[in-house]
């Protein structure tokens, strides 16, 4: 039985791009999810326990994740959960791993512009989407970001 999971969290290690023996791209990083709860008695938010996941993104998703993500980014990861037991000479434990089907920025904390892979491959764009906009792209507080005007079919 496969368990599917979606986790929103913070990337805790720099994403690493590895080529497997079969020349398949693999991007791996650690993801921290800290539960938050509202304490009605003190009228404050409090952090709960932090759960750590090892995320594995393969092939094109791995290439794009390695190009787009950095330690500290807030992301949403969806994929298949696997619990893997491990043991060393001094310790043993269980690691929660997610084989990612999708990875993306958590837009609660920033904005992004998406660049489709076809444009990247064709050399029409310089880079992949980034969660950190440039200062020129950051709207003033309380204002909506500018959206490109819709194309006028009559003008074509």
Automatic annotation (TrEMBL):
Note the superkingdom of the native organism: Bacteria
Which InterPro entries does the entry mention?
NA-bd_OB-fold, Primosome_PriB/ssb, ssDNA-bd
CDD domains annotated for this entry? SSB_OBF
Q: Which residues, by range, are in coiled-coil regions?
A: none
One annotated GO molecular function is: DNA binding
In this record, what's one Pfam family?
SSB
Q: What keywords are annotated for this sequence in UniProt?
A: DNA-binding
Q: Where is this region: Disordered?
A: 134-156
Q: Which PANTHER family match?
A: SINGLE-STRANDED DNA-BINDING PROTEIN (PTHR10302)
Q: What is this protein called?
A: Single-stranded DNA-binding protein
Q: Which organism is it from?
A: Leucobacter chromiireducens subsp. chromiireducens
Lineage start:
Bacteria, Bacillati, Actinomycetota, Actinomycetes, Micrococcales
């Amino acid at each position: 039985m496969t368990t599917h999971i979606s986790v929103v969290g913070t990337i805790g290690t720099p994403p690493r791009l590895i080529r497997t023996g079969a020349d398949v791209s693999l991007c791996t990083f650690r993801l921290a999810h800290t539960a938050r709860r509202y304490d009605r008695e003190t009228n404050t938010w409090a952090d709960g326990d932090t759960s750590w996941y090892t995320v594995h993104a393969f092939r094109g998703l791995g290439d794009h994740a390695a190009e787009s993500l950095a330690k500290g980014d807030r992301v949403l990861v969806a994929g298949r959960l696997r619990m893997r037991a491990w043991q060393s000479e001094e310790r043993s434990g269980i690691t929660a791993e997610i084989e990612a089907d999708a990875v993306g920025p958590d837009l609660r904390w920033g904005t992004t512009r998406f660049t489709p892979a076809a444009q990247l491959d064709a050399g029409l764009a310089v880079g992949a989407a980034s969660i950190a906009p440039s200062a020129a792209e950051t709207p003033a507080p309380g204002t909506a970001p500018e959206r490109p005007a819709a194309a006028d079919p009559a003008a074509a």
